[in-house]
Amino acid sequence: MKKATGTAHGKIIIIGEHAVVHGYPSVALPFRAVEMTVTVQQTNGNAYLESDLYEGPLHQAPNDLQNLLAVYDQLRADLMQQDQSHWRINIHSSIPAERGMGSSAAMATALVRAFYNYYDLLLADELLLKYVDLSEKISHGNPSGIDARVAGLGLPLIYQKNKPIEPSLFATPYWLVVADTGIHGNTKDAVSYIGNALNSPFITRRQAVSGALERLGQAAEQLIKLLGQGDTFLASEAGFQGICDTFKGAHKELRALQVSSPELEAGVAYAETHGSGAAKLTGGGRGGCYFAICQNQTAAERLAHELQQENLAVATWVVPFRSESM
């Protein structure tokens, strides 16, 4: 029986998380160390889902998968005849779920690609993003849109709402350690918390939160400027220090916004005293992942090993800090 497959990678936001929801710039990179694969085939029975999170009838899937169900129903309405409405969907993922790595956007992207591949249809970027945005609104409430675009386009991006997307192309000699705390984050709750704080009846709360978001936006602009200064500068001591200072400043503001967590703080603090120039959370926070920047691969691999040994991460990945290699 005919099958078709779609794939997508994870992402990491290197700067601008949360601020991007409120109109500030952010920089995010495809994270090719992890991948989502969706395979579809027609079946005689009702729609059936096989995944690590759930196996059973698709329309009985738990709330965590309602975004997938919505995209599936939209695809069925757009592409399928009545006699083509029963499918077996298999999802295999190495992207940790609910860790700020864009697993929901990657799942939607891979599902849409699988069905378009099944029907041998050309899938325009704009159409793909329409499906993935539908998924993200269900998953995150008020998403920035960056996960959908990095997963869908597969490019390193500078993203700011209501502005043209720009590629983020740079090369440094440095390495990142990406670390998973093993604890589910909750992007939807964190985004909602900040949104509510901006509408607080207390001017002190509104001012503090808007100030932190503004400084996060300034940090993102500073990093974009640094990464645009060329390979020679980036490889210099001033380049490394500038990047590290910017990451540290961004994490300070995320901590002030109360989207960090004890395990993230423990990992960041350890990394910065054991070979990393700077570390910060990535994604929605309140669990999930963080990353640390090191000057060379040897230091990065040593730190990655230590973070797991010290129970500060359940998994780590060591990747070059270059836009085309993440």
What are the SSEs and their pairings?
Elements: E1 3-15, E2 26-42, E3 48-50, E4 55-57, H1 66-79, E5 87-93, H2 103-118, H3 125-140, H4 146-153, E6 157-159, E7 166-167, E8 171-180, H5 187-198, H6 203-227, H7 231-234, H8 237-256, H9 262-272, E9 278-282, E10 289-294, H10 297-309, E11 315-322
Parallel strand pairs: 3-5
Antiparallel strand pairs: 1-2, 2-5, 2-6, 3-4, 6-7, 8-10, 8-11, 9-10
Helix pairs in contact: 1-2, 1-3, 2-3, 3-4, 6-8
Description:
The chain has 326 residues and is an alpha+beta fold. Helices cover 43% and strands 24% of the residues. The strands form 2 sheets. Strands 1, 2, 3, 4, 5, 6 and 7 form a 7-stranded mixed β-sheet that branches. The chain has a 4-stranded antiparallel β-sheet with strand order 9-10-8-11. It is globular, with a radius of gyration of 20 Å. The two termini are 36 Å apart.
Concise summary:
With 326 residues, this protein is an alpha+beta fold. It has helices at 66-79, 103-118, 125-140, 146-153, 187-198, 203-227, 231-234, 237-256, 262-272, 297-309, and strands spanning 3-15, 26-42, 48-50, 55-57, 87-93, 157-159, 166-167, 171-180, 278-282, 289-294, 315-322.
Share of residues in strands = 15-25%
Helix content: 40-55%
Distance between the termini: 36 Å
In total, the number of domains comes to 2
